[in-house]
What we know:
By secondary structure, this protein is an alpha+beta fold. It has helices at about 55-60, 140-145, 150-155, 185-195, 200-205, 225-235, 285-290, and strands spanning about 5-20, 25-30, 40-45, 70-80, 85, 90-95, 100-110, 125-130, 135, 160-165, 175-180, 210-220, 255-265, 265-270. The protein has two domains: about 5-95, CATH 2.40.50.140; about 100-290, no CATH class. The strands form two sheets. Strands 7, 8, 9, 10, 11, 12, 13 and 14 form an eight-stranded antiparallel beta sheet that branches. Helix 2 (about 140-145) packs antiparallel against helix 4.
Amino acid sequence: MNSETDVEMNIPARVKGWAPEGGAHVELLSRVGVHDIGTLVTVTLRPNPKGHVYDFEYHKKKSALRIGGLVLLRRLKLGNDGTATIKALDVLLENDKGGTSYVVQGAAISLLPPPPTAKTAMVEEAVVAMVRDGITISSIKDGAKRIRQGLEQAAVFGKPGVILTGELKSGDVAEMLLGGERDLTVDDIIYSLEHGTDSELMADVRSSKSKWHLVPFFKADVDPEKTKISAQRMNLSPDDGKTMGYGDGEVYGWTRSNCVLRAYGTEWIIIDTAVICDAEDTEAGLLIDIIEM
């Protein structure tokens, strides 16, 4: 029997070919442990005690999955010989004709509540914080000078903005979002950051002994066909008053995700926001906790 590592993560991948036992040869689209993006592995489904088999062969027939298609490998466990097993898989794009795709590596996601006028609980929009493009700052002025590149990248995918977060003198955590509106440009956001931030907050950043962060983000629409995204918000935003969940659109909760986008005309839409690790990402929380992991 092949020995396996303890890595068990939800990873997007592209199908490169078919393998025996309902498996597939895939290209990993996110890093897993020591395995870089682009690593090729042969994946099969782990045995299901309930007897249901929804493997690659099943999805070839029922979901029209083809070579070049995009999938989410759920609870991927890597072996040491170029093989891997998964608990399940989701088809994100059936083939390579579904438009250009992009994975925002190591993002933080906040799934926004449906608009007040919505007739269903379906998520229509999400905030994607590009954590790896974030910077640690010594002052607001310092951050305003250095955040432009990250904001311009965010503007490619949706309505750009920036998140300022850090620990106040009181010990509370501040999290301020600027932007995310269609009519705001990158220049507008930087100007608002530098000249519109509360003076007391600016003083806290300058004098703080702990780290303060600026993280670019974008708001984008969620593909209405991807109903698991709405289920994710409901599951991680329980109506029990004990956890903050994803918040109410004014207060935000965040989970880690290798967020998958696809081009739709001249815009990008979100097609997957699955948490990176089911065992670790069990609830939505503060952005700073994800930044400092």
